[in-house]
Structure to design on (521 residues):
């Protein structure tokens, strides 16, 4: 279940905390100029939509700066404006001591881009001047990096649109933090994003990333796309079909945009009223790290569904042993991986155990199926079906519990906690820490819900795989089928299939856990 990270909630908190500076700023009659462009007749529809996004962003800035007591000068220029006229506006803003900041909405017409660099660096609060700016990156990139900072412990971050204005700023800020970055842009295989722990998309291309790129192990996906559509709606870079896949997602609208405003408000307050102002931090939310959710380790989950799968697998193989001729072999000792299952056609002398291997699910390895009779596989399939149903039902229960916990926090406990702290005069970073601590109560419920669903899916995959093998056998010519049966019987005469290992590998290390030692809910 994907949790949406509200940028609007963060902006409300920052507005309240920084509102106390209004009494200092307003009497000084300071100004901020926001320059944007309108599309010209004959411009492509795509450009007109980008100018509409620029208009929406500019209006958000008007509200943010006005709240602090600043006067906003909205400068709206036609797309046909001359270079001389645009340069004159820049020069006028630079010369006016009351104008403390100038923002040029990007992108301007291409022929005017170079003139933006005439801005006074001291008034460039949006990092438009690159290396000449007093800020490392634009406000959007700064906001994105703060969102990522709440989730990037031991994480690799894929940045889609890494060579763009916003994307390059995100890359620089993350690298400054020492966060491993996978930069992706036009011409790259964007499917590489699936390997990362966090995905940031700054491409500004509607519905660019699909389920092919977004994975359940992604602890965070930041969608900074904002593409107005002809029907009046707004699209982000993440396709709606993939929006429910990651663990945490910034929505569009209401995600990155408000966070950008919070950064600009912080910067202008620091520039005009309080140079020592501390930066706000984006609150974290629960997530399951890739080390716990990646294939082969997520399936070592501490869930009842997984325990049920393991128990039914052991029961199925135990029944198969009892039907075999001769007494059952001794169970493997604790801490030792079970012996490998002989393959059809291998020459193994009686008593020759062969080399040991790490624990592995025999049903996931087709080459081992030849060692089991049809009756064994049918029994295993039936038990796996029951295990899948049990785990799926448990996953539904856990998901409902998680929803209830989240609702209680957001509507009652969290609201009451924040209200109490504000009444006590707590700072924004104190409130953020308190909210983060409260969120930790939800981590266990979310993690077990995700992991139990994974266990259910694994059991269902076993059922399907066994069914395919049984269908393969049924389609064999009679002579070949008899030959396989005879080979199976010959193997059984020398050796009974060993107790299967746990369905999933346990924690890596020099020793393996014995069956039944895994934790459960």
């Amino acid at each position: 279940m994907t949790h949406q990270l509200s940028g609007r909630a963060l902006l409300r908190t920052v507005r309240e905390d920084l509102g106390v500076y209004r009494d200092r700023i307003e009497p000084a009659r300071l100004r901020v100029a926001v320059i944007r462009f309108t599309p010209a007749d004959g411009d492509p529809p795509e450009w007109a939509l980008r100018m509409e996004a620029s208009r929406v962003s500019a209006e958000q800035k008007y509200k943010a700066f006005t709240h602090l007591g600043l006067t906003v000068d909205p400068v709206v220029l036609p797309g046909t404006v001359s270079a001389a006229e645009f340069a004159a506006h820049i020069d006028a803003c630079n010369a006016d001591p009351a104008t403390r900041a100038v923002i040029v909405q990007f992108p301007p017409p291409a022929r005017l881009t170079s003139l933006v660099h005439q801005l006074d660096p001291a008034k460039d609060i949006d990092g438009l001047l690159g290396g000449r700016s007093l800020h490392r990156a634009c406000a959007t990139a700064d906001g994105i990096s703060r969102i990522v900072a709440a989730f990037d412990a031991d994480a690799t971050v894929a940045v889609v649109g890494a060579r763009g204005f916003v994307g390059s700023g995100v890359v620089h800020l993350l690298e400054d933090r020492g966060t491993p970055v996978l930069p992706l842009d036009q011409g790259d295989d964007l499917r590489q994003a699936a390997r990362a722990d966090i995905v940031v998309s700054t491409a500004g291309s509607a519905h660019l990333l699909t389920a092919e790129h977004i994975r359940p192990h992604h602890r965070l996906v930041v969608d900074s796309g904002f593409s107005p559509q002809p029907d009046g709606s707004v699209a982000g870079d993440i396709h709606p079909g993939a929006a429910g896949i990651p663990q945490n997602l910034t929505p569009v609208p209401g995600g990155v945009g408000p966070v950008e405003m919070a950064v600009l408000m912080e910067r202008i307050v620091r520039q005009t009223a309080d140079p020592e102002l501390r930066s706000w931090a984006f609150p974290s939310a629960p997530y399951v790290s890739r080390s716990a959710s990646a294939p082969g380790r997520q399936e070592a989950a501490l869930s009842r569904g997984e325990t049920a799968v393991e128990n039914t697998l052991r029961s199925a193989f135990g029944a198969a042993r009892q039907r075999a001729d001769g007494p059952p072999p001794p169970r493997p000792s604790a801490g030792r991986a079970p012996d490998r299952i002989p393959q059809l056609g291998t020459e193994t002398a009686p008593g020759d155990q062969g080399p040991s291997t790490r624990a592995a699910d025999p049903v996931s390895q087709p080459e081992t199926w030849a060692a089991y009779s049809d009756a064994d596989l049918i029994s295993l399939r039936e038990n796996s079906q029951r295990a899948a149903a049990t785990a799926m039902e448990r996953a539904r229960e856990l998901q409902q519990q998680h929803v209830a916990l989240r609702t209680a926090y957001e509507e009652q406990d969290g609201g009451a906690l924040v209200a109490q702290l504000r009444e006590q005069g707590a700072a924004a970073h104190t409130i953020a820490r308190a909210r983060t601590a409260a969120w930790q109560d939800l981590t266990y419920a979310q993690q077990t819900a995700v992991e139990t669903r994974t266990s259910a899916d694994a059991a269902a995959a076993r059922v399907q795989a066994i069914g395919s093998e049984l269908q393969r056998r049924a389609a064999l010519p009679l002579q070949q089928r008899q030959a396989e049966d005879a080979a199976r019987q010959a193997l059984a005469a020398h050796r009974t299939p060993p107790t299967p290992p746990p369905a999933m590998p346990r924690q890596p290390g020099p020793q393996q856990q014995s069956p039944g030692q895994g934790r459960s809910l």
Notes: Residues 473 and 480 are 9 Å apart (CA to CA).
